[in-house]
Amino acid sequence: MTLDRRQFLTRLAAYCTAAGIPAFALADDDDGEHSGSSSSGTTTSTLPVTGLSGRMVVVGGGMAGAAVAKYLRLWGGAGVQVTLVEREPRYTSNILSNLVLTNTVQMSALAFDYAKLASTYGITVIQGEATAADPVTKTLTVATATGPRTLDYDRLVVAPGIDFAYPDGLQTPEAQALFPHAWKAGPQTTQLRDQIRAMRTGGTFIMTVPPVPYRCPPGPYERACVVADWLKRNKPGSKVIVLDANPAITAERENFTRAFEVTHAGVISYVPNAPVTFVDTATKTIHTGMGPFRGDVLNVIPTNVGPRFLQDIGVANAARGFAGVDVLSYESTAVAGIHVIGDASATTQPKAGHIGNQEGKVCADAILRVLGGGSPDPAPVTNSSCYSPITMTTASWLTAVFAYDPVTRTMKVVPGATGEALAANGDHYEDMFIWFRTLMGETFA
Ligand SMILES: Cc1cc2nc3c(=O)[nH]c(=O)nc-3n(C[C@H](O)[C@H](O)[C@H](O)COP(=O)(O)OP(=O)(O)OC[C@H]3O[C@@H](n4cnc5c(N)ncnc54)[C@H](O)[C@@H]3O)c2cc1C
Q: Taking the mean position of all CA atoms in its chain, how far away is CA 286?
């Protein structure tokens, strides 16, 4: 089903009003600025007095982890101690990172630090690597620059994102260093950008789409489009080959089919049913179920798997090492007292930053309700949105609302409030940046 953006917002607003979702989550002001989060102006001294108290430890300060840390404090009040453990000094957004490849966005615009979470909400931020958790003593072990630390918790929330299972030929660190996936934004993103810039005019850029589930369903197709657009302008005659492990385009099929067959006709070749079997780094050839493909720049996005840390703490009980959870609270179905949110959890919702933010809020709300002697909300609703640039000036979008289904105990798509852009255009391209700023402000400020 397709809706235009206004129709979508109107229907979504009506649905969410009925479902009791706060209006600020959707507001779209006439001046082009979303009305922002409910947090503006909050300081530790103005956190609500709720009478709740407890020690919450969050692992991973990405889209899901930063959100749950913020909302545990914002809704739980000053009595709820929150410690956020993150290995990096600052977060680099994957969202919009495909635009770094075309030099439209600089890496610096994707960096978010934890200063506001600390100063505005009184969250304790520890830079370090969480290495183990003991659910009996309720302690988390963290390796820091000054040595190991042990943190006591009443509830542990884990949001470590994803890891990768590399195909044959890309198993060694040396091979991986030469062929960046750039599916975690950072140095690999600029390395891939530089490889594309250095490619010969008339050359071939080959990228692969991993089998579902992977983070950001439209992301690989979006990457193919923006790289194709950049090559047309800067290296005419060059080609993009998309080797998809899946039988068909996995998200926004109409829009990406049009983008491949019309907007970027003659540049992008799309090959479905082409899982990678071997990468010959010497000849720059990707071997797949549909045969071998030789290119000048190879961008293999490996199969996404749950990070090793999930196994180490005993919660990796779903396919590919992801964590099974009860989506009313995101508590692990394997270990009580540990919650898993974001890409690391196995749910029917997409692995996406917007939904990670939503899962953080549902999880925070559930933990606080339980802390207060109640039960999690029996009917949570979440929503996911992705904007996908198709050219340097146009974008499309995709959104879905999910509601809890008590029969299957899963989050199910709400048909009337779900859809994609009718076509890519310049308005959507502008809206993409407003959406990004709003989402990141909701999460990190
Ligand atoms: C190119 C691209 C484009 C995308 N575009 C969109 C989009 O338009 N919309 C959208 O909604 N999503 C998009 N996504 C997906 C989105 O970025 C991810 O789904 C999202 O980041 C997942 O959030 P997360 O918190 O689960 O994991 P992450 O954001 O990856 O955060 C995990 C954090 O945990 C930390 N960590 C991991 N293990 C440990 C440990 N043991 N100890 C301490 N810290 C640890 C990591 O350093 C990291 O900061 C895109 C992704 C890519 C690659």
A: 27
Strands 111-112 and 91-92: antiparallel
Give residue-wise pLDDT tens across range 47-67: 999 999 999 999 999 999 999
Q: What is the pLDDT of residues 83-122, one digit of tens each?
A: 999 999 999 999 999 999 999 999 999 999 999 999 999 9
Q: Could you give the C-alpha distances from 143 to 104, 140, 147, in angstroms and in order? A: 37, 10, 6
More confident residue, 17 or 432: 432
Residues 6+ apart with CB under 8 A from 153: 55, 56, 57, 138, 139, 140, 337
**Does residue 44 surpass a pLDDT of 90?**
no
Instruction: State in Å: Cα 238 to ligand 1 middle.
Output: 31
Best residue among 94, 382, 440 to mutate for probing ligand 1's pocket (most ligand atoms within 8 Å of CB) is 94
Coil, strand, or helix at residue 148?
strand
Please list the residues that pair with 412 across neighbouring strands. Answer: 403
Which residues, judged by CB distance below 6 Å to any ligand atom, belong to the binding site of ligand 1?
Answer: 59-65, 85-88, 91, 94-95, 97-98, 129-130, 159-161, 183, 215-216, 219, 307, 309, 342-344, 351-354, 356, 386-387
| pTM, full prediction | 0.91
207 burial type by CB count under 10 A (0-12 exposed, 13-18 middle, 19+ buried): buried
